[in-house]
Amino acid sequence: MALSWTAADPRGRARELAGTTAVSTICFMSDLGGVRGTYEREDGTVGSYSMPAESRFSLTEFPGLVKERTGCTAVDVCQVQLADDSGSELDGFGLALEEAGVSLMALLLDVGNIASPEAERRAAVLRHVEGWLRRAAALQAPFARISTGAVQGAANHDRQAQLDSLAHCADYAMSVGVCLQLENHGGDALSPEWLIDTLEQVGLGRLGLILDIGNAEPMIAANLARLAGKPLDEASLDFGPVYATVAQLAPYATSVHAKVHDLDEAGGFGPLDVPRALRSIVAAGFRGPVTVEYEGPAVGDERWPVVRRSLETVNSIFGGGKES
What we know:
Blueprint: H1 10-16, E1 21-24, E2 34-40, E3 46-52, H2 62-70, E4 74-78, H3 93-100, E5 103-108, H4 119-138, E6 143-145, H5 159-175, E7 179-183, H6 192-202, E8 207-212, H7 219-227, H8 240-249, E9 255-260, E10 262-263, E11 269-270, H9 274-283, E12 290-294, H10 303-318
Parallel strand pairs: 1-4, 1-12, 4-5, 5-6, 6-7, 7-8, 8-9, 9-12
Antiparallel strand pairs: 2-3, 10-11
Helix pairs in contact: 2-3, 4-5, 8-9, 9-10
C-alpha cells in the first residue's frame, strides 16, 4: 500500500504520515557500495570524495530485503550512495518499490552549492536540484532533503543567495508534489540557531526539518573517530549537548532520523541514549514519520537485527508501525 497524503505543506504532510517508519539506505552503506559525491571549493572549483565498498546487494534489491527482513514498508534513499550524480540508477527503482510493496519516504540530496554568490553557477545548481526533485516526485516520495551549500564566512557563500535558493527550491518542490526539508546535517545546519532562523525566514509553511538525533557534538566527533579507527573514550564524553540540541529543534521537526550506533547483547543502545532522545521529541508534540539510520560497527547480515530492534524501539515510543 502506497503512502498517501493530501497536505501540500511539510507540517501538514508530516502529521498525515505520523506513525510511519522507514529504513534508510545509510544503514547498509558498505553493502550498497559505499558513498561518493562532489563539493564546491571556496575558489569555485569542484572536488570529489568517495568511500567505496564492495556491494553485497543492489539498490533495486533493497526495498524487497527491507520488507522481507524487517516488515517495514518504507525507505529513504541517500543520493550519495548512488553510482553517479545523474540519478539514472533510480530509473528502475520505482518498479522495484512497486514490486516489493514498499514506498519511498524521502530522497536525501547533497548536490551543489546553493549559496554561491555567482548567479550563473548558482542557477546551474538549482536546475540540477530541480531535476532531482522531479525524480523524487516520479517516485511518489512525500519528502526530499536539500543540503545548504557553502558555510558562512567562506568566499563562496552568500547568505541572501542561500535563502533565495532555499525558497526557490521549496516552491519548486511543492509545485511537483514534494515537500522540501533541511536537516541538522553538516556545515551551518549543525547550528540549531542557524536552522531555526533559516526555517523562519524561508517560511515554516514552505520548508520542513529532519531532526537527526545523532548529528550533534560530541556524537559527531565520536563517530568520526570510530570511522578513522581511533575511537574516543566515549564513557567520558558529556552527551548533554546532544539532548539539548534535540529538544531545541524538536518543535520544528517534520521528520526524525533515529540514528543508532551501538546495540549491546541486552538490547540497550549506546553511547547515545536513543530512547531518551526520542522521548524528548514526543514530549515536544512531534507527529510525523521516523526513519532508522544505523551507523554502527556491525557488518553484513549482522546489521539486520540491529535495524529490527531499532524499529521496535521507534514504534514503541512513537506508536508507529503503520503500514505505508
